[in-house]
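HOLO CASE FILE
Compound: magnesium ion
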Amino acid sequence: MAEVPRAGTGEVDAAVAAARDAFPAWRAVAPGDRAAIMRAIADGIEAKLDTIARIEARNAGKPISDANGEIGMVVETFRYYAAGPERLLGKTIPVAGGVDFTFREPMGVVGLIVPWNFPLAIASWKVAPALAAGNTVVLKPAELTPLSALELEKIALEAGLPEGVLNVVVGPGSTCGQRMVEHPDINKIAFTGSTEVGRSIAEGAAGTIKRVTLELGGKSAAVVFADADIDKAAAAVPYAVFGNAGQDCCARSRILVERSQLDRFLEVMEGTVKAMRVGDPLDSSTEMGPLISASHREAVASFVPDERNVAFRGGVPEGPGYWFPPTVLAPVSNTERAAREEIFGPVACVIPFDGEEEAVRIANDTEYGLSGSIWTRDGGRALRVARAIDTGVLSINSNSSVRVSTPFGGFKQSGIGRELGPDALDHYTEVKNVYYSTEEGS
Ligand code: NAP
Ligand code: MG
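Model generated. Tokens follow.
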């Protein structure tokens, strides 16, 4: 659908040099002027929303209705962080003999490395707070989905962002990404992707003591108690694992159901899954598209080697495309591979449980801790269980995962740091503490 230049480490070095050169002037732009440029970027994306959504849908194979929502969120993210430059507030701290106060300083050049599943949305969660805080940026999209990031770069220049402040490098992670991680002139890496690559980034950053934030994998649980509105839960929960064809770090791919309601739950869920509209990403009624690549489909299929554990499946269209049907495995034990590893495809494990204590134990029996949901009509239980599950983002009686104004990120091996909301700005600034003596003669 397009040709793009393939960068190597030389282009990374050139991008870092451009970002380094642009930094002093960009950090010196008055906060209100920086905010105005960010609002103009938001307006520029909004004006081209349909075009960018179509690019994203075609490039990633995601349903156009989802792509529209994602690019809408990109607009919202730039608007939200446009308030950032004027809200980088310091503190004054009472001390003896003087006054002590803090500043939130930009870090310098930040390197942003993002995956293919929500290409521009995840990029914007990083680019917007990074720019708001006065940093300059080198952004590396995933090789499979570079097109929307290149659009963003163009729009940002048209919106008045100075040359060199945002630099997009399109190239492989193993060369370009690696070079960014090791580059002595990059002060921070913000990464979203697999836990495996996240681990290598944490190691690589050690050489230069780079700041690192990581948004990694998940194996989240939807916990459905017998006292929940079972019909409502069973109709909603499939969308929290089959959305984006399961290629979602927030996927609630372990569905824990209290045993007394298991049959009813599966019956309603089967109706929902079989009615799911899987097909052409550019059809506005499509709910699920194909997977990103042939090799990814193979990896997903390895979790369903035969029909033994398959309770039911949805359908897929005939013809070309890396299709994989929405697939429900039940009943599954939390010790099985499909319940332990992140599948990143449309495969759900339904795991029965008995009682609240066991539900919490199973939900926490994973190396990950990114998202999750709790379905119950008992308010006390909802909050008890929410406090007991070791995860960064939870929803009660809802599939909600991310909102521009609320913090997002993981416990345990799901990551380090938080994106979105007010917290993200902290991760793109350093705290500077200044003491001013008020003693006579000073
Ligand atoms: P990935 O292989 O970890 O790649 C993510 C990004 O890192 C890509 O831009 C990739 O570049 C780059 N990369 C690969 N190797 C690198 C290295 N050695 N050094 C520096 N950068 C490197 O992940 P993916 O396969 O694209 O995406 C799937 C995974 O991402 C899943 O595990 C999922 O859970 C996770 N994910 C997490 C979140 C979250 O917010 N927590 C969101 C989305 C996805 P190239 O692909 O161009 O080579
Ligand atoms: Mg990969």
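CASE NOTES: The chain has a mean pLDDT of 97. The CA atoms of residues 3 and 121 lie 22 Å apart.
CLOSED: yes
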